[in-house]
Amino acid sequence: MEELAAVQQVLGVSFNDPLLLRQALIHGSFSNENPVLAPIPNERLEFLGDAVLGLVVAARLYLDFPHFSEGEMTRLRAVLVRRDTLARVARSIGLGSYLYLGKGEDATDGRNKAANLAGALEAVIGAVYLDQGLETVTDFINRLLDAELAKAVSKRSDANYKSELQELLQAREQKTPSYHVVETSGPDHDKRFTVEVRLGDTILGRGSGKSKKAAETAAAETVLKHLLNDFTH
């Protein structure tokens, strides 16, 4: 039980039933090699944890970012719950050290495999939910993912403005916007482009930039912010 005490300290959660935590750390390879000692691997807890994680992240995005569209929230959620992100979080707390692995899996760097780490973290989330309830697991997930969320939001690339605008207009109008260069100025080494966003024959807005792509992005951002502002007021 010393290992379980150590991992609880790492997680910042004190379990009422530490055996739930142990269950979350049992990889299938360990169960295969130790059917009597650990007959059930962590897949069921992983399944539950995946659902809980999705709910908590979706609620966080909905509450913290009221101006984000469904499309943007969907993209951010996908970034936060994907295997690579969860594995990175698991590595940051040293979760791999506490996994119960079969000898073969352990010998082939199983403690560092993204699939094992992400699955174990989801299983731990499932265990925290069963042991402590939704409020505690929400705090736990938010604490784990705070840095990843901040990074994902800061990397909200300019290209997303175009895709988000397209999703919004397709949802509202069942139409796709088009981009048209309406002005080019400046010398060859320092040109500036102005682009209009249109929906059919309707001009939605303009944007300028040092390239056609930059101008399209600026135009999409202007239109998107205007539409979202109208939608939320």
Shape verdict: elongated
Number of domains: 2
Write down the CATH class of the largest domain: Mainly Alpha
Assembly state (oligomeric): single chain
The CATH architecture of the largest domain can be given as Orthogonal Bundle
Characterize the biggest β-sheet.
3 strands, antiparallel
Strand content: 5-15%
**What would CATH call the homologous superfamily of the largest domain?**
Ribonuclease III domain
Low-confidence region ranges? none
Output the helix-strand order: HHHHHHHHHHEEEH
Report the C-alpha radius of gyration, rounded. Answer: 24 Å
Average pLDDT metric: 90
| Individual helix count | 11
Number of E-state strands: 3
CA distance, first residue to last residue: 55 Å
Helix content: 55-70%
Q: In order across it, which strands form the biggest sheet?
A: 1-2-3
Note down, in words, how this protein is organized.
By secondary structure, the chain is mainly alpha-helical. It has two domains: 153 residues, Ribonuclease iii, N-terminal Endonuclease Domain, Chain A (Orthogonal Bundle); 73 residues, Double Stranded RNA Binding Domain (2-Layer Sandwich). Helix content is 63%, strand content 10%. The protein contains eleven helices and three strands, in the order H-H-H-H-H-H-H-H-H-H-E-E-E-H. A hairpin with a 6-residue loop joins strand 1 and strand 2. The longest helix is centred in the N-terminal third of the chain and has 22 residues.
